[in-house]
Specification:
This protein is mostly helical and 86 residues long. 71% of the residues lie in helices and 0% in strands.
Length: 86
């Protein structure tokens, strides 16, 4: 059932119900299944985001540290900009 699939995908009940549904219940189910099949599973994306965020924060800190180190070598900062902007 579409409602069960919504729950599995992490959406609230009725999330895929259109504002003006077709009269044919089978067509409505098909539309809802299509929407759910094209959706991204919410719990998976949340899990990925929690895993990616610490890596991005470390990369940002490393970049800041690298820029500081480059400025010590080249006070103009030209090396820091050219080497880290790629």
């Amino acid at each position: 059932m579409p409602g069960e699939c919504e729950g599995i995908q992490g959406f609230p009940a009725g999330w895929t119900l259109p504002s003006n549904p077709p009269d044919d219940p089978e067509k409505l189910d098909t539309l809802r299944y299509t929407a759910l099949g094209n959706a991204v599973t919410v719990p998976v994306i949340e899990w990925l985001a929690r895993r990616i965020l610490p890596v991005l924060e470390r990369m940002k800190a490393d970049e800041k540290e690298a820029r500081g180190a480059m400025r010590l070598v080249d006070p103009s900062g030209s090396y820091a900009v050219s080497s880290l902007s790629r």
